[in-house]
Amino acid sequence: MTNINWMKEVEKRREALIKDTQELLHIKSLLDEEHVTPDAPLGSGVKEALDFMLKLGEKDGFTSKNVGNLAGHLEFGEGEKLLGILCHVDVVPEGDGWSSDPFGAEIRDGKLYARGALDDKGPTMAAYYAMKIVKELGLPLKKRVRMIIGTDEESNWRCVEHYFKNEEMPTLGFAPDADFPIINAEKGISDFDMVQKNSGLENSNENVKVLHFVSGRRYNMVPDYAEASLLVGNESMVTDQFTQFMKQHNLEASSHVEDGKLMLEVKGVSAHGMEPKKGKNAGLYLAEFLKQLELDSKAAQYFHFVSRYFFDDSRGKELGVAYSDEITGDLTINVGKLSYAKEVGGRLGLNLRYPVTNKMEETKEKLEQLLEKENFAIENFSDSKPHYVDEKDILIQTLKKVYEEQTGEKAELIAIGGGTYARSLKSGVAFGPLFPGRPDIAHQKDEHIYIEDLLKATAIYAQAICELTQEE
User: Fold this and answer.
1) Residue 1 domain-assigned?
2) Do residues 254 and 146 both lie within one domain?
């Protein structure tokens, strides 16, 4: 099969590939749990994107199946064994500060700009066209090939959970949703809330009342915006302190008085929760400022807690859970959601990513012991175990060969803090689309993919599909 010029096959379909990618990117496929229907259990946007892919597949002669309006698949080929390609069409919220419409899919300087261009609609379309090329060439395959399309990867993975309860588990597979060359190790990922207990803490000696404080919408994103409303005796003094504090930290901030309340706003820098250091957490900076004011004891307890354990510490050192290993590096903690209200107290939504040799049970126990003393408790705990595939595995050996032939570069193995659908397969790895040296702007403003990378990834996926289906 090495006599096929895969790149030439991709070039023949270049215009159609770009056009279909843009059409998929135009769909605002955000989780919307406030407007659900039986046909769209996660909102109309993600359902529209799923339908788009299934209709496209039907038009091109693939066998398509909608699985509970949460996921679907496109399949071709014959054989008992199944090669799975795991993709998702949901995206994280667009955030602010884009230089073009986040769903406009504009092409500038050889790059395609849109939320989802890199994570994961661009790669989904690359993998789809790779399947289409292999199918149109009529190559003899010894396995079936199935693209599995999810709609809830950025949140709770209800799509793959539902899918694999009802459908076949692929024999092996890959997820085009991370970095090239090959990711064979993924950290464990745990989401949970730390909630302030109602201990009756209250006194009236405060100079400042925090009525409301909120930041962040997703566990796995560094919040780029935070706001608070306060009742204060001396507004100008607090405003001056606030302006000075935010200037020191090079953050954009504003304040104004509305209905007798002082409103504070902070703009941070968003980033993927797998590496909080790449962003600037607006919520943590605003909490750090509020901690310095004379607050009532309940508010003071919350903001001092946030400051002590999370400000400038994304490695869990202060919490006593820091951990690192040679395979996947440091444990990381992203504070993705923060809120405080005078009546209900405060809470934090955390995204904790832990190395493959770390035991989450032990980490959780340490946290619970600490929180007991601090008047906080863990709620809404979820845990996705780490994932690791040995280098000697035939899947990895084949993908290494394909990557090296297509790029002329050595295929090094990588470990990541992100979680991809590959972890839902027993033998699965994440494979592209981000090439070494390219900036990782997934979950950030002006997310984009280079057109040449989109085409190159398609050629790599096409050869990979071909090679992985040769052995029975």
Assistant:
1) no
2) no
